[in-house]
Specification:
The chain is an alpha/beta fold. It is 27% helix and 23% strand. The strands form 2 sheets. It has a 7-stranded mixed sheet, with helices on one face.
Amino acid sequence: MSTRPTEGESARGRVALGLLLTVATATVLAQAPEPVAPPVSPPAPAATLDATYLANEGFMVEGGGVRVLVDALFGPGVTGYPVLPEATRAELERGAGPFAGVTVALASHHHPDHFDPGTVARFLVSNPEAVFVSTPQAVARLEQEVPGAESLRPRLRAVLPPAGQTERLEIGGAGITVLNLHHGPRDPPVENLGFVVALGRFRFLHFGDTEAKMDDFRPYLELLRGTDIALLPFWFLSSEWRVEMVRIEIAPRSIVVAHLPLPDAPPGHFGRWQTYDDLLALIRSNFPEARIPAFTGESYRFEFEGEERDGVGHR
């Protein structure tokens, strides 16, 4: 004969069952892994490019732990344009002080205010890891004019892509895209290179002394568009169609003016502008944010935030 539990016994049973369930739930929870928050992608870090003006169109640019020289290894230059002080040029050739660790030196063409065979050779001897990139004309001059240059041949790159095309180099951590941008109608022709250089996440461009026309630039506009730093000779910031091309087609994030004549240069150096001050006033009117170097060694730090590029201009 079964006996029904009393009301007190039922209540005590319900309490015991509740305690068991509580203990069991606590045990399961204790054994379960802690909830993990979903990963959050950090914002793209800021990156910097440092550009140091040396003389004329000569610069040292550093980014991503890589240092590059462009049109910096020249000697006495030409009348009316800035040159490096001799002590600074000697330090540059040795790769000493602020010039230590340069991995690649570029020269747009062989004219003496952009390139000097002996200066380049001494730089390469003192910097055994560095590579020199320029036109076939410039490399040929170095090989012909510098005794013993054959020992440097493994570190010389003579490059001249066909008109409208590019050549891509990877040297010492720098991604270098070489453009064929002629120096203008000359007899004999003067080979001139443009460079788009990727250092880390960002890029700079340098055109040398090109006198190329708009049709010459058209195949390159997609590559050039949105470059982070444009190191541009003054005529790209003062002559009308070039001003429009820089503003609209290239639209660089920052500009540094290059190849400015000395303030006391003869009037013919300033084109149709009569004086240095007239030329600077026009550049400032066209590009108020452009940096205009005032002395050798003047440095600029550019800090950018944004997505990485693939080294040829695309995000």
